[in-house]
Amino acid sequence: xxxxxxxxxxxxxxxxxxxxxxxxxxxxxxxxxxxxxxxxxxxxxxxxxxxxxxxxxxxxxxxxxxxxxxxxxxxxxxxxxxxxxxxxxxxxxxxxxxxxxxxxxxxxxxxxxxxxxxxxxxxxxxxxxxxxxxxxxxxxxxxxxxxxxxxxxxxxxxxxxxxxxxxxxxxxxxxxxxxxxxxxxxxxxxxxxxxxxxxxxxxxxxxxxxxxxxxxxxxxxxxxxxxxxxxxxxxxxxxxxxxxxxxxxxxxxxxxxxxxxxxxxxxxxxxxxxxxxxxxxxxxxxxxxxxxxxxxxxxxxxxxxxxxxxxxxxxxxxxxxxxxxxxxxxxxxxxxxxxxxxxxxxxxxxxxxxxxxxxxxxxxx
Length: 365
What we know:
With 365 residues, this protein is α/β, with parallel strands linked by helices. The protein is 35% helix and 19% strand.
């Protein structure tokens, strides 16, 4: 198979886990653990080893100008190490436009935890993308980067790339942006990546289980704590509007009847530095069952946040490449529904999974 050449906007923990994970599977595919943790080892013939980074952009001075294999381990990244012995250095990380990508409150925190801006001039992003011959641009910018995300989406269009939007800025689920990609005959998947087994996917499926079993849900919450830059960034509540919409709609869409706003709370709770990239979710659902008898469920989930995201991104990238191969333009709907919290169309995870498996069967035959 041909390589899947990817460009990455935002060399944070999620990018680090993704790239380390690709190397892990590249080097362990013949071992007993070679397929553990993957939803699909092969997607239309593409394996993890076929993904190759060819361009990367960031704004932190500890990453800009560094080879990608070094930049993914630079502060303030703090995810667990998966694989360090890269055979190639990868592309040099280039300076991206700052725009609204860095929250002002980052200056109040130490170098160890917060972003530190590079003084370098922003690269010509479209030119770099074209010269790199990238197939797909992956957006890993911080939550709340509306202008910067739109800039990179337009850059993908201008350079002729597929686009995977992993953050809660509404690009793929926006009709205007979706139409732009469709007219350009370029596939896109988004918005706001689900974790492989995270708070939202668990909350969605539990909520649907309640409904399917005849339980009337009265109220629910999901509170999350973590110690990575994502949680630090989200201390600025002004950057959270689209994030809360995305997470809330992901759960509400599974209910027979949406809950009133005051009966549902889904969102980050606090930043706990010593948790690093570990995310802890506290979830509660209250409802009534047979003969109106009340019941409730409480759950605590602890996961490494960024590898959990990478377990989905590694599939989203390969499905986007299949879209390019088959010249499918615009939002890839079943993939967006299965991989993302805020897709253009919300369907159940079971139905989305069935749709993408049917898609793979058509590709195979």
